[in-house]
Design goal:
The complex is a heterodimer. Chain A is mostly helical. Chain A has one domain: ABC transporter involved in vitamin B12 uptake, BtuC (Orthogonal Bundle), CATH 1.10.3470. In chain A, 72% of the residues lie in helices and 2% in strands. In chain A, strands 1-2 form a two-stranded antiparallel ribbon. In chain A, α1 runs parallel beside α5 and α6 crosses α8. The model of chain A has no long low-confidence stretch (mean pLDDT 88). Chain B has a domain of 210 residues. Chain B contains 14 helices and no strands. The mean pLDDT of chain B is 88. Classes of the chains: A mainly alpha, B mainly alpha. The interface between A and B is large, with 49 and 41 residues.
C-alpha cells in the first residue's frame, strides 16, 4: 500500500465526512430546538440532489445557479413544512413528529421514483471544477477539494451565525429555554421556523454537493441518514462542534475501513459507536440531561 | 376475566380460525399473523417500556436468517430452526439492549437504529452465509413429524398455534410483577428509582423478551416466504412495526395486533392498484398522526363510549 494511496483515501474520507457534517449540522440544530429527529432528513438530502439535476439538466445548465438556488428553495420548503404540519405536533410526544417525518420520507422517496425512475440519473462534475489540482504531494480532483473547502466555510458560517449574531443568540437561547425566551416577548415560533429552514437548507446543500460524486437515486439518503445518526451520537447531540468532529471521524473511519477490509467498511462506524458509547455515553461534547 | 373481554377474545379466536378462508390468499393471512406477533412483541418495548426502539428489524431479521440458515445448511428441523431463531435474536437483543439502554429518549432511538443497520450491513456483505442482496433463497419447509406444512393452510394453523402461545406468554409477562414494574417505570422513572427499582435492568429484561418474540416472528416469516429477503433487516422494517403499533394503539397489546392487520391488508389492497404503494402508505402515516392518535383501539373505545 503506497503512501499516495493512503493519502488519497484519507482525502476521500474527508469528502464523505463533509457530507456527514452538513447533514448532521442540520439534524443537530433542529434536534437542539425541538428535541426531535427528522427521519425525512435523508430524503430531503436526496430531493436536493434531484433538484440540482432538474435545474442543471432542464432549466439553466449552470451548476452555480443550482448550488445557490436549491438550498434556498429547500429552506423555503422546510419553512413551509414547519408552518403547515410540524407546528401542530409539538404538543404531542416527540414520537408523533417522528412518525410524521417517517411517512414524509416514504412519500418523498416514492414521489421522486415515480418522476425520475428508480435507476437514478446521471450528473456530471461542473466544467469549471473538472480536472485535478496538484497539491505538491499528489493530484486530487478539483471538485472534491472544492467540496471540502465549501463545507468548511459553511460550517464556519453556521458557527459564526449562531455564536456572533443576535438571531443566532436567540436560537441558542431558545434551545436552552424556549419558555423563557417567549416570556421575554420574542416570537419563538418564528425562530423555530427559521431553525427548521436552516436545517433543511443545509441538507439541500449537501444534496447538491453530493450529486456529482454519488449515485443520484431515490434511496441515496435513506442509509446515509443512519450514518448521520451515528455521527451525532459520537459527537454528542446538540453540539455543533460534536457534529463537525463526529462527521469527520465517521468519514475517515470508513476511508480507513476501505483500505483495511472493504466489506466491513460500513460496519466499522457502528462498531466504533458501540465501543464509544461504553466509554462516553453522551458522546464527545454531549451535555448532561439535554433532551433526555 | 370480565364477560366483555371474554367476548372480544372469543371473537378474535373465531376470526383467526376463519381468516385464511376469507383472506384473498392464504399466505396473506399468515403474514398478518406474523406481523401481529411482531407488533405485539414490539409493544412491550414501546407501549409498556416507553422506549422508542428503531432497531427491531435486527431481531426480526436475525430470527428469519437463523431459521433460514439452519433449515438450509444445518438440519431440516423446524423446531430446532425456530429455537435457534429465538436464541440468536435474544442474544442480539441482549447485546443491543445492554449498549443502548444507558441512553434515553431520542438517543436510545438513534442507537438502536444504528445497531440494526450494523446487522443489515453484515448480512448485506456476508454473501456466503446470507445470499447478500438477493436474500437467502430456497429455504425448505420440511415436514413436522406426521404434519406436512407444504399446504399454506396447514402452515397458517401452525403459525396460529405458535402465535397464540406467544400471545399468552406476552400477556402473562405484562401482568407479572416485571410487567407492572415496567409500567411504573414508564409512568414515573424518578419515583420508581427512589423506591429502589433498578430501572435499566427492567428495561433490559423487557427489551430481551421483546427481541425474543420478534425473532420468533422473523423465523415464521422465513418459513412463510420460503426465503429471507435482505429487506427484513432494513430499518424500514423497524419503521413499519413502529407504525403498526402506533396506528393500532400502543400500550394495549391487542391494539398493535389490529394495527398489523390493518396495515398489512391495506398494503395488499393498495399494491393491487398501484406500484407506488409506499407513497400512499407514507400519506396514511402522515395522516394518522393528525387523525387518530389513540390508534384503532382509541377509536374503538371512544366509539363504544359514545354508543353507550
Amino acid at each position: 500500500m503506497s503512501g499516495q494511496f493512503i493519502l488519497v483515501q484519507l482525502f476521500n474520507g474527508l469528502i464523505l465526512g463533509s457530507l456527514y457534517v452538513l447533514l448532521a449540522l442540520g439534524l443537530c440544530i433542529i434536534f437542539g430546538m425541538l428535541g426531535i429527529i427528522i427521519f425525512a432528513h435523508g430524503a430531503i438530502f436526496m430531493v436536493g440532489a434531484y433538484l440540482a439535476y432538474t435545474v442543471t439538466a432542464y432549466l439553466i445548465p449552470n451548476f452555480w445557479v443550482a448550488l445557490v438556488c436549491v438550498p434556498i428553495g429547500m429552506a423555503l420548503g422546510g419553512a413551509l413544512l414547519e408552518v403547515i404540519f410540524l407546528r401542530r405536533l409539538y404538543e404531542l410526544p416527540p414520537l408523533y413528529v417522528m412518525l410524521f417525518t417517517f411517512g414524509l420520507m416514504l412519500v418523498l422517496q416514492d414521489l421522486i421514483r415515480m418522476i425520475f425512475g428508480s435507476m437514478g440519473v446521471p450528473f456530471s462534475t461542473p466544467a469549471a471544477l473538472a480536472g485535478a489540482v496538484n497539491l505538491g504531494f499528489m493530484h486530487y480532483p478539483t471538485y472534491r477539494l472544492f467540496l471540502i473547502v465549501l463545507t468548511a466555510a459553511v460550517s464556519l458560517g453556521v458557527w459564526l451565525f449562531l455564536t456572533r449574531t443576535k438571531l443566532g443568540g436567540l436560537i441558542r437561547a431558545g434551545t436552552d429555554n424556549p419558555r423563557m425566551v417567549e416570556a421575554l416577548g420574542i416570537n419563538i415560533s418564528r425562530i423555530i421556523t427559521l431553525v427548521v429552514a436552516l436545517g433543511t437548507g443545509l441538507a439541500g446543500l449537501a444534496g447538491v454537493l453530493a450529486a456529482p460524486i454519488q449515485n443520484v437515486r431515490p434511496l441515496m439518503g435513506m442509509d446515509f441518514l443512519v450514518d448521520c445518526f451515528v455521527v451525532v451520537v459520537i459527537g454528542g447531540m446538540g453540539s455543533l462542534g460534536g457534529s463537525i468532529l463526529g462527521g469527520l471521524i465517521a468519514g475517515e473511519l470508513i476511508a480507513v475501513g476501505v483500505m483495511v477490509w472493504p466489506p466491513m467498511a460500513n460496519t466499522l462506524i457502528y462498531l466504533f459507536m458501540a465501543a464509544f458509547l461504553l466509554v462516553r455515553p453522551r458522546g464527545l461534547f454531549g451535555r448532561e440531561a439535554f433532551h433526555e | 376475566m370480565p364477560r366483555s373481554q371474554a367476548y372480544v377474545l372469543g371473537s378474535f379466536i373465531v376470526l383467526a380460525v376463519l381468516f385464511p378462508h376469507v383472506a384473498p390468499y392464504k399466505a396473506l393471512a399468515s403474514e398478518v399473523l406474523i406481523f401481529a406477533l411482531f407488533a405485539m412483541a414490539y409493544d412491550l418495548v414501546l407501549g409498556y417500556g416507553g422506549m422508542l426502539s428503531f432497531g427491531h428489524a435486527a431481531f426480526f431479521g436475525i430470527g428469519a436468517y437463523t431459521t433460514g440458515i439452519i433449515l438450509l445448511r444445518v438440519t431440516p428441523s423446524i423446531p430446532l430452526a425456530l429455537v435457534g431463531a429465538v436464541v440468536f435474536s435474544s442474544l442480539a437483543a441482549l447485546f443491543v439492549g445492554y449498549a443502548s439502554i444507558r441512553r434515553h429518549g431520542i438517543y436510545f432511538t438513534m442507537v438502536t437504529l444504528a445497531f440494526a443497520q450494523m446487522f443489515y450491513f453484515i448480512a448485506f456483505k456476508w454473501t456466503g452465509l446470507t445470499g447478500g442482496d438477493d436474500g437467502l433463497q430456497g429455504v425448505p419447509r420440511p415436514d413436522l413429524g406426521p404434519l406436512s406444512l407444504h399446504s399454506e393452510t396447514h402452515l397458517y394453523y401452525f403459525i396460529l398455534a405458535l402465535v397464540a402461545v406467544s400471545i399468552f406468554v406476552i400477556v402473562r409477562v405484562v401482568n407479572s410483577p416485571v410487567g407492572t414494574t415496567l409500567q411504573a417505570l414508564r409512568e414515573n422513572r424518578d419515583r420508581a428509582m427512589s423506591v429502589g427499582y433498578n430501572v435499566d435492568r427492567f428495561r433490559l429484561i423487557a427489551f430481551v423478551i421483546s427481541g425474543c418474540f420478534s425473532g420468533l416472528a422473523g423465523g415464521l416469516y422465513a418459513l412463510m416466504l420460503n426465503m429471507v429477503p435482505l429487506g427484513a433487516l432494513h430499518w424500514t422494517t423497524s419503521g413499519e412495526v413502529v407504525v403498526m403499533t402506533i396506528t393500532g394503539g400502543m400500550g394495549s397489546l391487542f391494539g398493535p395486533v389490529l394495527g398489523a392487520v390493518a396495515i398489512i391488508l391495506l398494503r395488499d389492497i393498495i399494491s393491487n392498484y398501484t406500484e407506488s404503494w409506499s407513497f400512499f402508505m407514507g400519506l396514511i402515516f402522515m395522516g394518522a398522526v393528525f387523525g387518530f392518535r389513540g390508534g384503532i383501539v382509541g377509536l374503538l373505545r371512544s366509539t363504544i363510549a359514545r354508543l353507550r
